[in-house]
Amino acid sequence: MAIVDTHSRRRYQYLDHFLNKAGPTTDVDFVPGAETISVLENSKVLVIGAGGLGCEILKNLAMSGFRDIHVIDMDTIDVSNLNRQFLFRKDDVGKSKAEVAANTVMTRCKNVKITPFNGKIQDKDEDFYMQFKIIICGLDSIEARRWINATLVGMVDMDNPESLKPLVDGGTEGFKGQARVILPTLTSCLECQLDMHAPRAAVPLCTLATIPRQPEHCIEWAKIIAWEEHRKDTILDTDDPEHITWLYEKSLNRAKEFNIPGITYQLTQGVVKNIIPAIASTNAIVAAACCNEAFKIATSCNPYLTNYMMYTGDDSIYTYTFEHEQKPDCPVCGNLAKNITVNPNHTLQQFIESLGERPEAQLKKPTLRTESTSLYFQSPPSLEEQTRPNLLKKLKDLVADGEEIGVSDPSFTIDFKFKLVFQS
């Protein structure tokens, strides 16, 4: 029988109204009282991201009865973070976000232990993620979301229920936001919903190369053209400070050449990572929704979200929930190839470029192959040189109508399957 420290529970008296008695919508597995409280306190939770959303999530989890929290973030604190990331102070600029956020919350909530990790989520293996009961994302990157989504789906072992780790994902974009609950392999995963996150419209290359008019054009020039000219053998990592600094310096020189003001390191980072300016109130609302779902999953005190909540606050306040369906042709949790309609007269180069722009793909450096041959390899250099002539060939000369191709990208742990359907 679980024993609860009544003294330490005083801070959480408001929660005990939910945990000490059943309600009309309570899950059948819910056991009121000390046992559920003990489960909550011992649930090990991972928070990915300690920025605008992450600060709110950490605070909410600590105030919701979770006592074993881990947080991972590779960023350091910038002065621009201080207007909304309230766990940080001016003296913290330059320090690890994860470490400062963890220490700040633990200072206020003495019974909570928060373990910080300063680094990339991609540097952790499956054993690391297997130890957690729930994983909550407060990320500003679609690529990082797709990576953790694919990793958690790949971890699922049907013979081991503990291998299924619920993923609660929150995201904001200005006055808009969303929260969703993903049960890997059982419900719609993030990749099933990828077309809801369409990439931003591309700027014509001729504008970038010849007549930039905005600071953003200079940054895109540095990212697309200058990087390819000077560092094409290095994969651009938008989370690497050295790479961002290089792009910032190149774009700054480009801007000076055309008398364009406004280039800053922060703007460079925002354009390269497609970061939308954050609004504190949106972060607070979405983080509250995410932590509410984590609380319900951990305690079974109420049904959790099935499975998507959207919020908008730009013109009044509006929320809407719906169930996003699992797609059988999802490259992560499905088993069928996804159909892509293509122009058979387009070159392989044009098709590769389109994979970065298509909402259902968004692949930046794809390597392509059919069952019988290699179409194009991004690396190593010897294979890239060997398959480079295919870039100028038309699709109809390389693949058949309805043929499946395999696509891999260095940003992801999985291979994608697409069926190319020729336009009539």
In short:
Helix content is 34%, strand content 16%. Strand 2 (68-73), helix 4 and strand 3 form a beta-alpha-beta unit. The strands form 2 sheets. An 8-stranded mixed β-sheet has the order 3-2-1-4-5-6-7-8, sandwiched between helices. The protein has a 5-stranded mixed β-sheet with strand order 9-13-12-10-11.
Question: How would you explain this protein's 3D organization?
Answer:
It is globular and about 70 Å long. It has 13 helices and 13 strands. The relative contact order is 0.11. The longest helix has 20 residues, at 280-299. Helix 3 packs across helix 11 (280-299). It is 34% helix and 16% strand. The protein has 424 residues and is an alpha/beta fold.
Unreliable stretches covering 5 or more consecutive residues: none
From the alpha carbons, calculate the radius of gyration and give it in angstroms: 24 Å
Terminal Cα separation, in Å? 69 Å
User: What does the overall shape look like?
Assistant: globular
Helix amount: 25-40%
> What is the ordering of alpha helices and beta strands?
HHEHEHEHEHEEHHHHHEEEHEEHEE
Strand content: 15-25%
What about the largest sheet?
A: 8 strands, mixed
Which class of secondary structure composition applies to the elements? alpha/beta
